Amino acid sequence: MIAAVGYAGILVAGISAIGLIVQGARSFSGTIGTDRLRLPAWGIAVGAIVAMGSLELALLTDDFSIEYVARNHSRDTPLVFTIAAGWASLEGSIVLWGLVLSGFMIAVLRSLDEDDRSGSGALAVMGLVALFFFGLMATAANPFTTLDIVPFDGSGANPLLQNHILMAIHPPMLYLGYIGFTVPFAFAISALVAGDGSTSWLQRTRRWTLIAWTFLTLGIVLGAWWSYEVLGWGGYWAWDPVENASLLPWLTATAFIHSSVVQRRRGMLQAWNMALVISTFALTILGTFLTRSGVVASVHSFTQSAIGPALMVFLVLILIGSFGLFALRAHLVASPPRLDSLASREGLFLLNNLLLAVFAFVVLIGTIYPLVLEAFSGDRVSVGAPWFDRAAIPLSLVLLLAMGLGPLTPYRFAAPDLMWRRIRGPLQAASIVSVGTVLAGVRPITVVATIWLSVFIVSGIATLAHQRARAAAAPYSKALSSLFRADPGFWGGMVSHVGVALLAIGIAFSGSFVTRQTIAFEPGESALFDGYTLTYEGPTLRDEPNRRVIGALFTISRGDTVLGTLEPRLNQYPNQVQPIPTPSVRTGLREDVYLSLVRIDSDGVTIDAFRFPLMWLLWSGALLIVAGGGWSFAGRKRRRELSAAKASTVV
Amino acid sequence: MSERLRTLSALIVIGVSLLISVLVLATDSTGVGDRVHSLAERLKCPICTSESVADSPSQVARDLYDLIGEQVADGWTNDDIFEFFVATYGEEVLLDPKASGVGIVLWIAPLAALAIGGAVIAGRRAGKHREISQAERSRIATALEEQG
Amino acid sequence: MSNRGRLLVISAVSLIAVVFAVVFSTRFGADPRLSPSPLIGNPVPDVTLDLVESDNSLRLRELAGQILVVNFWAPWCVPCRAEHSDLLALADGFEDLGVSVVGVVYQSRQDDVVAFLDELGRGYPVGMDDRSRAAIGFGVRGVPETYFVDRDGTVVAKITGPISLGLATATLDRIILGEPVESARTGEVQTQP
User: Taking 60 as the threshold, does the pLDDT of residue B147 lie above it?
Assistant: First the structure.
């Protein structure tokens, strides 16, 4: 029964998608008004809600007649993971995809004017994308396949997915990001088809881009955090194909966010912006494909499935269709090159774009080269962290430099004397701090360079804010806060820049000064680890509804001061032989102490102990990047409401 | 005068800091790094999906790590060690593909992309038309900035 | 953009897309973890095993002149239980034809090995793999894996996953007759307990 309702929802959404394509195209050509798009768009949304709702209902009511429920849920699964099971596995994740996409479509629908060709065209494009995904759900990835013989209980979710709460939040965030890029993509395609050279597509989608970018960033950060908290090897980023798949659209989207500023301010780069948006969208589909087709081995990948070929065909169609369209029509929309001088803010934006594009290319090559090589020659190679690091570190350092200079550099042309006056303060701050760290014993040179650049970035932004606030008539603190409110796009960006600077220091420190030691303990035994004393108090054991948790209790002390207890654990799930570790982390101002349980029996335990300096800086920097993104779109909205309120009082 | 003084003091601060940093970093003998660990980071743990020998908590990875330690102690060169592992596990044991043979693409492609991109931007710059002189523009820009 | 430029972009993108498609089509259904052994055609690695329930050790190269079946296994490995009786039969059946079966224990404790053998039977020498040296020498990625070595001491084939008596017999027959043999994958290997 639930299965039938859910499947009907998918069909309704799919048919509505066809309706939206047809009506969108008619409205685009001016035959009908945009009010006729309302029915099909809402049809998709209602269908998607019904489908997702049915799936959740089936999970919550233990309806094991549905194969998806039987495979991804069991009676013992805790509530939060039961709900998360609705998108934790392949078919469900596609349903969530459809739901989020329909949400974006409704938002676009509500922004339409009565006669809105570019918006109608964009909705038609989104309808095409929706048709593909609902078509997938109706065929190859049907979540509502029923079983003839209904099992009494299901096998439960993949242990890795029900081991930590982050796994319930990380994928939806990532999807909000991925799918959000459909909006600028759709508007860009619509503008290309119309041959509309105005920047309205960019203005209209800027907010969507920022929202998508912010959620994508959050999704990536949560994924990294999950890696750190769960996988037990102490890392947060392994250059794994699936991680790379989420980084790729992030890189091109970040490039787009910057280059769209240039277009708004200086009217340049229209065609390049469209290419970036199309690439970003194509990369989100590539990421989806890599994750869900089983072509790459990854700690994150879903199992092999029939949707791989479908996604691949879709990707090929997008690439040929949209870049073909781009090649045919870009001359109609392209803006004239108006670059006065490379020594200008535009010039730095171009540098930023070049580096981010090359970065994305490097990550793409490294990720798919092993597949390409094996397909053509049968040779197998691995491309791992050392290779990616070698490319990513210099690119990142130059990006940081551009990031430090950019906000201080004027548009059009940066006169040397003016530039010098602006940067000498930050330069001094950076030099003094970095010489201090060098004298304090910080090595190697890449870490020192990172500190130098980060201080340069932060002090540059601080100087900028300070000068503007001091120049204002209002009292200093008030002027500072109104500064942030007046231009949330810029200052949100600056908050993100500060976040990047902190993140860079966190990455450099935690990566360069990690200590790792494997230690075996007998019960009651103590051992020294990097200035700390770890004492093994004994094993712990408790049965939870969905798993058995075997832990090892440690007290950690420094000198005579007991700092607390740590309990790294192994979680044994009934549906998997191999236990899933849960490391135990003590976060401090200086460093994290991270214990991961390797082996435990009656004789004692073996643990991996790690010390990662300044991890909190890494995470707070990452969250600050997200916050900056959030401020730039939330603040923008408030500003618009404010001006609308002002306008109405004037009337 | 105070402007020139500021410039001078800034140059001194930056110059001295830079000089000290360079001198200290150049004469530094520590920080050579742990050779065994850096080798282990460049070899893939054979039973893992993307972890290196250095990162994997598995017992095999630990045994491999110890073996690398012995090889280093026995005076093997890095190439000897890589060759040994390639002979048993195949090329894919190297997380950092060699810059020869099939791996060459991975080394050339990024540099080529950087060069092409740079050339495109430079070409864009060259294509512009000059109406006012650089000095004039500099003056205008400065004046505008001073005002705003 | 000029007409030629447009054509160029379209054909380049189409080419890339099609290459993509071809590349990935070959990968559907393939196991990304499966990989060939570089050992095939090379001399058997020089490894020495500490024999279980014995004070002796066994150096594989000292068995030169015999055909070797080197089976990596572990007591915690589920498919290894399934293939054990076939290995016993193989050792028994081919003994007179100059074939030696050697078991190598992967990542396990001797007590568990003895318990396993008590339960499922003995019939050929089994050695402990000190510090995984044998497994590293052979490039083992999981258990069970079985390597076939001809009389010249050259590794000629590898079976990944549990052996079946039929497949192993056929492989040995061909080696005895001096015919070329092929490696095979019969199922999953287990990497950890």
Answer: no
